[in-house]
Give the backbone structure.
Amino acid sequence: MDAIKTILVREIQQINQQERRDGKARFNTEFFTKHPLLCLAMLAGYVAVGVVMYYAPYMGLGWFAGFTAFLVLVSGGLLLDIKPVYRYEDIGVLDLRVCYNGEWYFSREVPVHAVEEILAHPQVAQPIKARMQEIIRHKGAIDFYDIYDLARKQARQPAPLAASGRQQQPAH
């Protein structure tokens, strides 16, 4: 389990570094560049609502200013992009962190070189290696959760009894 954890942690750190996953909020202009006509339509809708609010006798400038401030605040919040940091400790955890991080460990494939390193590592149990190869044959790749789950199941199994020359008697 320690060898697998070490390899997976290293791969997760490389993914975080390559994708600049630091958990910090950044302004993202991708929406504007990919959907310019939609942005113009939204702006036209804002102007139309603003005109109605300004000229309506029961609203006026105060409501229009409040509407504009609310729209700017919400739009600014929606344009923030946060790339959460992937962590080994989050694999298989189903709590509120999933809302922020997502379940990336189900959709991210472990790089081939890391899989080969795990399969070649002498401290990794043979049943884990065999099951990993079987998963790869069926799915074509293996994700972080598959390896994590295999290692966790192996770690929970009791260690085999040392050969002492006697066989254990079944409990009655």
Remarks:
- The first strand starts at residue 25 and ends at 27.
- The radius of gyration is 27 Å.
